[in-house]
């Protein structure tokens, strides 16, 4: 088996093939693997020596460090004042040794549990060096003993692999679960109650791991130890057997546990089922979900006491259960499981698909046995306490399923990796990150009482579609993984590995190298060092904050398309030199547009130059990231690039770097690092082709690459588009089938218009005017500060209201309150659950049961209904499951679970009523945003000071934080409105506090506002004035430093008012009354 080949001759026709997680992957050779094992064992010896050996040595040399009695003050003074015979010095050395041991042991104690759990260890700033050393030792041990299960199936013989096919499972068919569940118990023949045990096997396919096989065959990757236990020492084809390295080879026959996947498994003789413990499960919660009463958890203990768990343990302590354990749920033979809420049964008929279900015919709720629950689907619905299963699996013939690319189920909804127009998850994440910076700048520049321009109509739909596919978490994984690799190379003094292709899936990030290289843990080597894998979970080992200042090692890595298993295929354009996009003119232009936009917004490129020649002229102005320039023709461009290449090669030679990778790793010849990627929209002439080939192929390579269009290719690499099928292409010379990433004309212009909205001026939201009745009178705080405050207040309260702007573009949302905004009068406080939006999104005071795995999804549905009362199922589907066709069963199950979670009021009425005109909550359900508006109203300048204080106490952070970045795409308008409202209220309260001489309140108000929008200079000026009023010079300096850093990050200059304030406060001239005079 080989890595992705790169022939040394010109491109020839090759049979197509695909890159999968197992393509060209095999174990590294015995010597390399032995080296990893020896390093791990050596690290383990060091850990044991540090934790055990050092304390024993110190005790042996100096005895017990703890004194027999507490020394008196006289003992201390005499020890310090009397002549020392050397004993005090030696004792001090001993204590230094103990302190050093404790500091290192703390780092190990923090790192070891993090490595075992797959979580990122908390940072210990005071023990940074010790923690870093401990992390290295733990990572070396984990690479041998922990990362093993992630190792992929590998080939040990150079045989031609068979054509890719689904992994076969050799097994005799067991009875269907439904048949087993309904089988009658036979008291006279106990053996009939036990189903026949059938030994199942799995034939290992290339690229598989024990984790993946457990996911496929057992339903949960955490169950891989069960497979391992069955197969240790079992002879396999080729003479090897599974050992504790957990390497597996294609063709092996692995024994599988006899039971099916870890979903509920009926037991024929008792009607019992099983439950596989998930993270954060408790026996009380399982009993509450599966038996309807948490107090019945002792029944689970008794039923599960004799079950041998995957780790060999048994359930003995009700307070101790581990993820992956199997809990037996007792039942009654012949009794069908209860469906739905144990208090009220669901009717067998589902509601019409067009609207939420009709209300009950009578006002008085019927008895529990008859009370309808409209959203419940027909008998196909699974028991309410079980995880929701995909409708396809439950209803094979369901006409609502259609041919959707993704099906929404559960909390972790499958999401597409590209829009319908071909925009991938990484490109979408880059565009949205740039859009977020633009909106922060909008918020920063608006005046109090104004609202930033936001998209509406088709542009808002485009933004929602981008948010539905964007994957910022994968973007961060690629960024920190590459920077972490670069940091390790710099520490070891070696060149960067010659990366050619990257492949990113939901499970791992794969690096395909041009030559063998040695990568550090947590990278896992395959194919003798040509291919390296980074499991997504292992990416948590990298510290993004520490790697922030590491130069980007592969800035020209860009997505060219998508392959099997929803994998992103990335190509390092610097490495390949040239890429020809071969195909018809319009599809080629779409591919080039996608390349240009992703390169311009890529977070793993600190700086690069994208030169567009004769294509996409609008990008230079519309996507002003500082990376794009446009030229109508090539002209003298190639001569300019040749001159740059000559200078770069001279700089590398002078610094002793033998390649660009070497220069970046060693931190020399920095002027040669910034790549220039040229995208040529028109074919070049023969002479220009030759000049370009000479430019990019001469050694040492320089940071210049070109993407050409037309029928020919300058170099070996090309993306051959299939005529008549815009979603098919072949990447040559590796012959890999890809779905090319492209940006068609419609979405291209939609993205540019979406970004254009951020350049439009803010618009007045309310008509400023009037003052609150309880505004404090000015106090004697100094003429300079009072003059500044009066100027600010004059701007807030002009003599005449500003004129409204003339006609706004149709694509911009009108300056109106979001559709859910109630009138200003305060609503009656609710007595039911509260949906919290002003910070992390949470639900308080919901008294019903909720599955932990459904909490986030149900919370989002609750937030959507609370902010959009009265909308029907179509709007809900579009918001919760964008890009998917949602079955009635899926939606109704979610609504039914949400209703049970929120519960009922004292009168027995559901907090989520059954209505015939859209979803809406009972009046007893409120949000903190409702409470905010009841306190502040539409204009904070008219609210009382106590109301402003109470409103700001509701703020727990920036609205809608702590959510999955792929969720809540519908909430962006509300988020920006809430940010504006909080900032304005914070500024108004800070102004009043400054006028009243209350520096503490002014500081508190400005701090809350800056927590929501850190770039708002108006609030920074309030903060600086508060520190000045308090006489806190250090506070002033800290605020100025932080404000300046944020401004630099946003690429914006400080406002004139801020510059004047800083100059006044930092002026060496004497001040009167301790305050600035001219502000």
UniProtKB/TrEMBL annotation:
Pfam families for the chain: LysM (PF01476)
Compositionally biased tracts (Pro residues): 348-369, 816-830
Stretches the record annotates as Disordered: 1-27, 157-203, 303-413, 761-785, 809-836
UniProt keyword Transferase, yes or no: no
Keywords: Membrane, Transmembrane, Transmembrane helix
Regions of compositional bias (Low complexity) in chain numbering: 168-199, 323-340
Bias-annotated ranges (Basic residues): 8-17
Family matches, as InterPro entries: Bact_Kbp, BTAD, LysM, LysM_dom_sf, TPR-like_helical_dom_sf, WH-like_DNA-bd_sf
Spans through the membrane: 36-62, 88-112, 133-152
Residue ranges of every copy of the LysM domain listed in the record: 200-256, 273-329
Protein name, UniProt field: LysM peptidoglycan-binding domain-containing protein
Species assigned in the record: Jiangella aurantiaca
């Amino acid at each position: 088996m080989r890595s992705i080949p790169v022939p040394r001759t010109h491109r020839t026709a090759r049979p197509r093939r695909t890159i999968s997680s197992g393509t060209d992957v095999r174990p590294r050779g015995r010597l390399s693997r032995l080296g990893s094992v020896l390093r791990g064992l050596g690290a383990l010896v060091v850990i044991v020596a540090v934790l055990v050996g050092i304390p024993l040595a110190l005790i042996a040399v100096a005895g017990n460090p703890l004194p027999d009695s507490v020394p008196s003050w006289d003992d201390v003074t005499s020890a310090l004042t009397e002549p020392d015979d050397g004993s005090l010095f030696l004792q001090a050395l001993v204590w230094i040794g103990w302190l050093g041991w404790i500091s290192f042991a703390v780092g190990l104690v923090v790192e070891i549990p993090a490595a075992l759990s797959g979580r990122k260890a908390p940072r210990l700033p005071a023990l940074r060096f010790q923690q870093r050393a401990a992390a290295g030792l733990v990572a070396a041990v984990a690479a041998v003993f922990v990362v093993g299960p992630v190792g992929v199936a590998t080939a040990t013989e150079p045989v031609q692999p068979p054509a890719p096919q689904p992994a076969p499972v050799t097994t005799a068919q067991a009875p269907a679960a439904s048949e087993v569940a309904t089988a009658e118990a036979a008291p006279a023949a106990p053996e009939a109650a036990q189903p026949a045990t059938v030994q199942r096997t799995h034939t290992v396919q290339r690229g598989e791991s024990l984790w993946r096989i457990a996911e496929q065959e057992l339903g949960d990757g955490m169950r891989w130890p069960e497979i391992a236990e069955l197969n240790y020492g079992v002879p396999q084809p080729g003479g090897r057997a599974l050992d504790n390295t957990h390497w597996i080879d294609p063709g092996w026959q692995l024994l599988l546990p006899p039971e099916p996947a870890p979903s509920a498994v009926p037991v024929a003789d008792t009607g019992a089922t099983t439950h596989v413990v998930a993270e954060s499960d408790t026996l009380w919660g399982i009993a509450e979900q599966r038996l309807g009463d948490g107090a019945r958890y002792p029944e689970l203990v008794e039923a599960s006491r004799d079950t041998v768990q995957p780790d060999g343990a048994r359930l003995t302590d009700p307070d101790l259960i581990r993820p992956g354990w199997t809990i037996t749920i007792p039942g009654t033979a012949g009794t069908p499981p209860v469906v739905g809420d144990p208090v009220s049964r669901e009717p067998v008929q589902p509601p019409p698909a067009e609207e939420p279900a009709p209300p009950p015919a009578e006002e008085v709720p019927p008895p529990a046995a008859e009370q309808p629950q409209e959203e419940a689907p027909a008998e196909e619905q699974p028991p309410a306490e079980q995880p929701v299963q995909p409708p396809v699996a439950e209803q094979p013939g369901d006409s609502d399923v259609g041919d959707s690319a993704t099906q929404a189920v559960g909390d972790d909804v499958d999401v597409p990796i590209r829009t319908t127009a071909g925009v991938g998850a990484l490109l979408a994440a880059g565009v949205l990150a740039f859009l977020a910076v633009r909106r922060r700048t909008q918020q920063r520049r608006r005046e109090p009482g104004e609202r930033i321009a936001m998209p509406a109509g088709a542009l808002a739909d485009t933004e929602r579609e981008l948010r539905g596919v964007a994957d910022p978490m994968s973007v961060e994984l690629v960024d920190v993984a590459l920077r972490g690799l670069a940091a390790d190379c710099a520490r070891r003094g070696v060149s960067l590995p010659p990366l050619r292709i990257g492949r990113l899936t939901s499970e791992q990030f794969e690096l395909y190298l041009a030559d063998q290289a040695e990568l550090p843990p947590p990278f896992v080597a395959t194919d003798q060092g040509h291919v390296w894998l980074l499991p997504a979970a292992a990416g948590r080992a990298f510290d993004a904050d520490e790697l922030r200042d590491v130069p980007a090692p592969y800035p020209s890595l860009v997505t060219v398309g998508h392959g099997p298993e929803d994998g992103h295929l990335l190509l390092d354009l610097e490495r390949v030199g040239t890429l020809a996009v071969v195909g018809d003119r319009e599809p080629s232009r779409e591919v080039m547009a996608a390349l240009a936009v992703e390169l311009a917004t890529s977070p793993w490129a600190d700086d690069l130059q994208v030169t567009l020649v004769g294509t996409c002229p609008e990008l230079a102005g519309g996507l002003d990231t500082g990376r794009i320039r446009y030229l109508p023709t090539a002209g003298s461009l190639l001569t300019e690039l040749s001159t740059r290449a000559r200078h770069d090669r001279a700089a590398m030679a002078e610094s002793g770097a033998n390649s660009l990778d070497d220069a970046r790793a060693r931190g020399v010849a920095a002027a040669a690092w910034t790549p220039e990627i040229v995208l040529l929209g028109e074919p070049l002439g023969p002479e220009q082709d030759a000049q370009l080939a000479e430019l990019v192929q001469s050694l040492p390579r320089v940071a210049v690459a070109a993407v050409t269009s037309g029928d020919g290719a300058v170099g070996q690499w090309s993306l051959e588009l299939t005529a008549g099928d815009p979603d098919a292409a072949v990447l040559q010379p590796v012959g890999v089938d890809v779905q090319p990433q492209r940006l068609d004309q419609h979405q291209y212009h939609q993205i540019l218009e979406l970004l254009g909205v951020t350049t439009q001026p803010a618009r007045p939201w309310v008509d400023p005017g009037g003052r609150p009745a309880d505004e404090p009178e000015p106090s004697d705080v100094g003429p300079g500060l009072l003059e500044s405050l009066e100027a600010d207040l004059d701007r807030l309260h002009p003599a005449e209201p500003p004129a409204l702007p003339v006609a706004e573009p149709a694509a911009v949302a009108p300056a109106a309150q979001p559709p859910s905004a109630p009138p200003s009068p305060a609503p009656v406080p609710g007595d039911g659950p509260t949906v919290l939006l002003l910070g992390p999104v949470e639900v308080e005071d919901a008294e019903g049961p909720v599955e932990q795995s459904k909490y986030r999804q149900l919370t989002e549905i609750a937030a959507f209904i609370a902010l959009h009362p009265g909308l029907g199922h179509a709007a809900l589907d579009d918001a919760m499951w964008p890009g998917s066709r949602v079955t009635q069963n899926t939606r109704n199950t979610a609504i039914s679970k949400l209703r049970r979670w929120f519960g009922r009021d004292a009168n027995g009425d559901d907090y989520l009523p059954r209505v015939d005109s859209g979803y809406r909550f009972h009046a007893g359900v409120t949000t903190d945003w409702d409470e905010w508006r009841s306190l502040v109203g539409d204009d904070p300048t008219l609210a009382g000071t106590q109301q402003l204080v109470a409103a700001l106490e509701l703020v727990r952070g920036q609205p809608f934080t702590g959510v999955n970045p792929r969720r809540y795409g519908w909430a962006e308008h509300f988020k920006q409105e809430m940010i504006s409202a909080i900032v304005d209220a914070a500024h108004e309260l800070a102004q009043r506090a400054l006028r009243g001489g209350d520096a503490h309140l002014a500081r508190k108000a400005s701090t809350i506002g800056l927590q929501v929008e850190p770039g708002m200079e108006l609030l920074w000026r309030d903060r600086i004035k508060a520190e000045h009023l308090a006489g806190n010079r250090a506070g002033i300096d800290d605020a100025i430093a932080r404000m300046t850093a944020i401004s630099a990050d946003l690429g914006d200059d400080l406002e004139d008012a801020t510059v004047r304030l800083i100059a006044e406060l930092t002026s060496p001239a004497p001040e009167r009354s301790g305050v600035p005079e001219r502000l």
